[in-house]
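Input record (one chain):
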Amino acid sequence: MKYHVPYSKSTLEFDLPPGMRGTVVASKQVEPLSDVKAAIAEALTHPIGSPPLREMAKSGDRVCIVFTDITRASPDQLLVPALLRELEAAGVRDEDITLLCGIGMHRPSTDEEKVAKLGQSVVDRYRVIDNEPQNPKALVDLGVTPGGTPVSAHRAAVEADLLIATGIVEPHQYAGYSGGRKTLAVGAAGEALIAHTHGPAFIDDPRTRLGRIEGNPFHDAVTEAARRANLRFIINVVLDDEKRVVCVKAGEMEETHAQLVEFARSIYEVPIPHQYDVAIGGAGFPKDANLYQASRAASYLFFAPTPVVKPGGFLIIPARCEEGAGDGVGERRFLAAMRDAPDVQFILDDARKHGYPPGQQRAFVMAKVLEKARVVIVGSETPDVVRDCKMTPAATMKEALALAACELGNALDVLVVPHALLTLPVVSDANR
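The corresponding structure, as predicted from the sequence alone:
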């Protein structure tokens, strides 16, 4: 049997050696929206828990739209122009609108990426800027939440009369599900907020988990941060494995997000009978352009409600990693922490004792994964970076599977998850 997983903008085909038993798991299939533009227009005309934008905005208002960066597959090239048409109908002037790329602690977006996310005509017509999480002059201090989270966000967002965000709702390792509050509360946040919510206390908390919203301290913190910034309107989508829009909703932040999460759970959460010896997880473009993002495929499979691999198992991730570890501040911190530590236990102990700056949380997360499992990156163009990050590079899937067989034997149960970031395998209650 031939198996296929995403690799960059293409796919990687492979088969399993004799003795290995393969199981493929994918999110549930639903019909993609036949007319996405019409669905977006309908969502904006009949928003959830909110008046339509053309009734909320008026001439003279300063408006900020926070949109996702290039590492997110949110179709902002459709969402943002639709929002801009509503604002134009309300009489808002072009010069009063700011489009803020929610890069979080990632590198600034390039001109080409801004065009890819928004379209050339939008970039030419409106002010388009990036978040500046380390620039105090670009941020507004919004105090500290009751849970102790220091809240700051980009001035363009906080000082707007009307703050809007786009987003994509999918399983997220810390937030449970992404989207809603997160594009603003992390993407447009200051470094202190990102550092606190991505710190070891949050990540070690068992309630900070993929698929979990209720009682999740990360979710609670970023929701409160978005409230303080006065995020008044969102438009978010749910995508299928082929990155096609299957659901779009707009309106008030919390109720709109809750409805999208309910829909997302119905397709992304898939039961599996037991843990496996090996899990092969696909990430694909744009996530597998660097190791910081591609490693999410491994950590998502590990931090499912029950890890999908047994202790000592293998997580195999095909990823081109043409950008190495990544070029942003956070990505460089991840690489330094992984490379400079003598072993993964040092990373865990040091983080729990001293904490770490934003971005370095990915090192802490991957150390938690590597403490219990082997991570093999297949087809990386930067194998030295993979080694520096205490993962194992393999040129081909055949080589990766041979490594697993050498350690675990030939008779292995293999779980193949072609879209590991859009599929949440849940071990049945009886077998947890």
